[in-house]
User: What shape does this take?
Amino acid sequence: MRSLIEGEVTLDLPEALRSAGTLLSQKINTDEISDKVFEFTMDRLRSYYLDLEYSHQSIEAVLALQPTSPFDIQQRLSAVSAFSTLEAASDLAAANKRISNILRKANIVDIIEVDRNLMVEAAEKTLFDALAAIKTEAAELLANADYTQHLTVLAALKKPINTFFDEVMVMAEDPALKVNRLALLSTIRGQFSQVADIGLLSE
Assistant: This one.
């Protein structure tokens, strides 16, 4: 694992394990053994990163997304650790945790399309516009696996997210308003969770 990480080698570990397992497929259950080896490897990585003094919260936030490349895990963990030092980090971690709880209770799993025309409160329009303003840049950074800068760009959402929660009732009586607000929150969570489960940083 250290060789893959320090050598900056991108390797899908479960795929590599299954490929290696085909050589013994007549003697073992390849899928079952590959899964067990992968789980063992992730546990070893937890210990490895704790020894390097990464926080438990940062490690779990990254592994919650179940990334499969050790080097990719390192990149994500470095990004989350850098994000944690930002002034906006604690507010955004708490907001992400709140968003996840709201969406779970509302049984929202996938990202829903947001309709700005349905918005009536200034705070929700401001949040939507702030998200739209950084969407393209965030996507480009993500495509280049620049997770650190991706999260840094998203940090600009701190103020509009806080204002949204202060001034907007998500679970509105009007079903259309409620669903659209849930969709907005789902989109925000989707942006952050491209890198890690940021809400876990607040635990």
About this structure: The longest helix spans residues 30-51.
